[in-house]
Amino acid sequence: MSVLTRDEAQTRAQILDVERYTIALDLTTGEETFDSATAIRFTARAAGDTFVEVKPATLRSISLDGHPLDPALLDGNRYPLTGLTAGPHELRVDAAMHYSRTGEGMHRFTDPTDGETYVYTQLFMEDVQRVFAAFDQPDLKSVFAIDVTAPEGWTVLGNGVAEHTGEGRWTIAATPLVSTYLVAVAAGPWHSITTEHAGLPFGIHCRRSLAPYLDADADEILDITRALYDRYHEKFDEPYPFDSYDQAFVPEFNAGAMENPGLVTFRDEFVYRSAVTDTERQTRAMVIAHEMAHMWFGDLVTLTWWDDIWLNESFAEYMGYQTLTEVTLPRALHSVRAGEAPFQAPFPDTWVDFGVARKGWGYDADQRPSTHPVAPDPDAVPDTASALLNFDGISYAKGASALRQLVAWLGEKDFLAGINTHFARHKFANATLADFIDNLASATDRDVHAWAEQWLRTTGIDTLTAGISAPEPTGGPTEPNGNSQSWALTVTRDGSRPHRVTVGAYDHALGTPPGLGHLALRDRFDLDVPGDGTPTIRPGRRPALVVLNDGDLTYAKIRLDTASWDTVLTSLSGLPDALTRAVVWNTARDMVRDAQLPPATYLATARTHLPHETDLALVQGVLSFAAGQVVDRYTNREDLPAARAILTDLCRDLIRRTEDGSQPGLRLIAVRHFIDAATQPDTLRSWLDEGTVHGGPELDPELRWRILTRLAVLGATDETTIAAALEADPSATGREGAARCRAALPTAEAKAAAWDALFTGDTLSNYLFTATARGFWQPGQEELTDAYVARFYPDAIALAARRGPAIAEAAGRYAFPAYAVDPTSLGTGIRALEDPALTPALRRKLVDQLDDLRRALAVRSAVAPAD
Q1: Do 739 and 772 form a contact (C-beta atoms < 8 A)?
Q2: What angle do CA 730, 733, 734 make, to 5 degrees?
Q3: Contact 488, 505 (CB under 8 A)
Q4: What value, to the nearest 5°, has the Cα angle with vertex 580 and ends 359 and 404?
Q5: C-alpha count within 13 angstroms, C-beta hemisphere, residue 67
Q6: Is 725 helix (H, G, I), strand (E, B) or coil?
Q7: pLDDT at residue number 485
Q8: Long-range Cβ contact pairs of 669-673 (< 8 A, separation 24 or more)
Q9: Nearest-angstrom CA–CA distance, 220 and 298
Q10: What strand order describes the sheet that includes 463-469?
Q11: Residues of the chain with pLDDT under 70
């Protein structure tokens, strides 16, 4: 399949204006294909040649202005349109199209719980051509009018209000001008909950087998949706630009969600079948906020070419976190509906979750060889294949961090004024980075263009290091003994960007010996870095702890002075603000990854302070890094027993702390991590046999499959038990759990069967592939899996070529031998990068994985005893 180049897109945009697509989809033609008939009205500005994209199972007919064309001229996914005359034209294409099992194009899923079938589109980047013929690029916006024929009993959803006209036929209201990749259809026997808000129909939808779980959370989801909708209308001058707002939770979705105007699609794991924490509910709310922000930034105003994808994702990421914070914190502004109290969800400051769960994603991506600017040069994104690689921690987390720093520097009033100018100038059209910066600059006297060059066009992370000294007495404030008291802060910067940061100075609380009690904020002040080199002088004795970037308003690695770090090791949990603790935990995380802090010290710090932590996002973030990286990848083999014992003891402490039932979220996190860290099966078996953790919680499907997976890893269960568990839970997640368990069994036969399913069978859906891959590689099973390390590369390369980008991404992310941390594995991977058959999607994942492997080796080497 040919990928679209930027040059081709620019040429086609100069030739064509596309006015309207009229599309008829017939979903009643079988389980493998559906029918797609498309009429495209467009105007050629001048005579010339171009092409239309379509990727059919069978191209039955194609005609231009009523004249038949030869279907045999289809070249891959392109049909040439040669000799176009200037003026209006109509192109008609009739084809049978393949359903997808990989979450691309028109995905088809049959629910194993009840046998019901659902289909939905995911047309992002270049998958529209899997569903209907199109001039598939973001700057050829058009009106889309879609009719769908579906089986009786199905409901059809689309970008606009869908009307059932009888006999399984549905007409979806025509869209305003939108890009091809934003067209959406979802069809099936949906369970739907509908309401109305601000004069528009709102709805949430899921498959029928999830109906009880959606019903249980419907009030929360709809309240959050309404509150966000109202708050965005307070921020933005342009009203919501579409005729309805549906949110469909769909099966086997590759992303977290997709911002299709009027029909946002979410992965249906957000319809919780099992117990979750408030932090996980907050994540769902943030995704809702993120996708709603896209209705303006991405859908109303759309990028011109994919080099500006950050304009979509960074904006939605920043605005999602910020707006959710505003509508859910008690101190925030609220949109009060007539006769109702303001909605308040039980969420903490969402920026804590961003700091601990998202920001590290950006930091990690920005230190790899594959790093790129937030706003790359257009020449660096020459085609759609390269553009797809930039949906990463830089375009999301780093870009959002940069925008947060911009707001801190510019002020929110001017920032929103510039945003509203941007919407007004480019609504229902396309815009570039230059347009965005010009519109921001129109609202302020500050040099936004210079800021953009320094923040958006550069790569890498700056490091800000605090230096503390006590200057000579100068006759300033004095202590009772007559000695002048003050302290001086000097911040050095390794990097080139300007930063506006908040500095927090903390003392041990009065009457509390160091290391045993709380820290109290003495002073908090703003600082511009770099300054003029003059130390900042503050009154009083030297603080026990000085935190740069207190409030986490910039994007930089932070290094504390030695005395402050000593205070952290003993008193981190005594910091009064969760966001400050997130900054300090991120500093510790960075230091471990940079081989500046031994993994054992990180574990000891977690062991000391997590039992006193009150913020669930921090507990979850620290435990995830401790388990998934510090223990499983950064700890040398001879140190593993002690590291795993610390992790298990920490989880046991948290479980004991929550025995009174007052903190169910914290207890759930601790139980999950205890299961994953267990080295002996006895406790897990007793929980499974009794159907409950002693003292709670009762085992729900998620915990049952988690325990079974760990028992499989330990060799303490078998195929008979797994099959019985699947019979008891025949749902889609049950099938995934069983696949994960079977692949985790420590036998040569189980590993061979899993490998064959992953790399030979080509029948696994995207979700079953991921579940099998996650079960296959397990720390401690190296004797069984070492032989597969070298096999991974040729098998994954061939698989990616056969099955496309979604499976290539899953193979590179989940099937990579991440626990084979040794020079031989690294060398094998580096040699594989020379294979000319590598697809861009898989190459990018391998480059990132191999860099992480190189880092893990460096960390291990730094703490290994000298020979």
Answers
A1: yes
A2: 35
A3: no
A4: 45
A5: 5
A6: helix
A7: 84
A8: 669/277, 669/616, 669/619, 669/620, 669/623, 671/697, 671/703, 672/703, 672/706, 673/623, 673/627, 673/647
A9: 26
A10: 536-539, 486-494, 463-469, 557-559
A11: 1, 329-348, 472-484, 511-517, 866-867
Residue 321 φ/ψ, nearest 5 degrees:
-65, -45
Amino acid at 145: A
Count of C-beta atoms within a 10 Å radius of residue 445? 7
d(CA 3, CA 78): 10
Structure tokens at 131: 């569903």
What are phi and psi for residue 507, nearest 5 degrees? -115, 160
Beta carbons within 8 Å of 99's beta carbon, 6+ residues apart: 31, 32, 33, 34, 105, 106, 107, 108, 119
First to last CA, the chain: 54
Of 291, 317, 736, 809, catalytic: 291
H-run or E-run covering 236 = none
Supply 631's token pair. 């223990």
- What's the pLDDT score for residue 317? 97
Structure tokens at 2: 């040919």
Point out which residues pair with 95 in neighbouring strands: 36, 59
| Contacts (Cβ under 8 Å, ≥6 apart) of 422 | 301, 431, 435, 436, 439, 440
Determine the Cα angle at 107 with ends 102 and 108, to 5°.
Answer: 110
> Using CA atoms, how far apart are residues 581 and 616, in angstroms rounded to an integer?
12
Cβ pair 62, 129 in contact under 8 A: no
In the prediction, which pLDDT does 160 show?
A: 98
Q: CA 807, CA 269: separation in Å to the nearest integer?
A: 19
C-alpha 794/C-alpha 828 separation (Å) is: 11
Determine the Cα–Cα distance for residues 538 and 541; give it in Å rounded to an integer: 9
What residues contact residue 140 under an 8 Å CB cut-off, 6+ apart? 12, 13, 16, 18, 179, 180
Does the global pTM surpass 0.90?
Answer: yes
Name the E strands within 530-571.
536-539, 545-547, 557-559
* Element containing residue 621 per DSSP (H, E): helix 616-625
Amino acid, res. 166: G
> What residues contact residue 684 under an 8 Å CB cut-off, 6+ apart?
675, 678, 707, 710, 711, 716
Q: Which residues contact 647 (CB under 8 A, 6 or more apart)?
A: 603, 626, 627, 631, 673, 677
State the pLDDT at residue 510.
75
Cα distances from 724 to residues 110, 186, 226, 750, 799, in angstroms, run 21, 34, 43, 17, 32
Q: Is-contact 647 259, C-beta < 8 A?
A: no
Long-range contacts of residues 199-204, Cβ cutoff 8 Å, at least 24 apart = 200/240, 200/243, 200/244, 200/245, 201/161, 201/244, 201/245, 201/246, 202/226, 202/244, 202/245, 202/246, 203/157, 203/244, 203/245, 203/246, 203/247, 204/246, 204/247, 204/248, 204/249
Rounded Cα distance between 24 and 747, Å, is 51
d(CA 158, CA 172): 6
Predicted pLDDT at 334: 34
How far is it, in rounded angstroms, from Cα 149 to Cα 393? 40
Residue 200 tokens read as 């528009």
Place of tokens 């559906």: 34
Whether 291 is catalytic: yes
Radius of gyration of the chain (CA): 28
Instruction: Give the Cα-Cα-Cα angle 375, 380, 384 (nearest 5 degrees).
Output: 95
Element (H, E) at 561: none
The alpha carbon of residue 529 and the mean position of all alpha carbons in its chain are separated, in whole angstroms, by: 30
Give the pLDDT confidence score for residue 333 in this predicted structure: 33
pLDDT at 864: 78
**pLDDT given at position 515:** 54
pLDDT of residue 866: 59
Name every residue whose Cβ is closer than 8 Å to that of residue 331 and which is 6 or more positions away in sequence.
Answer: none
In the block, which residue shows the tokens 């040398």?
636
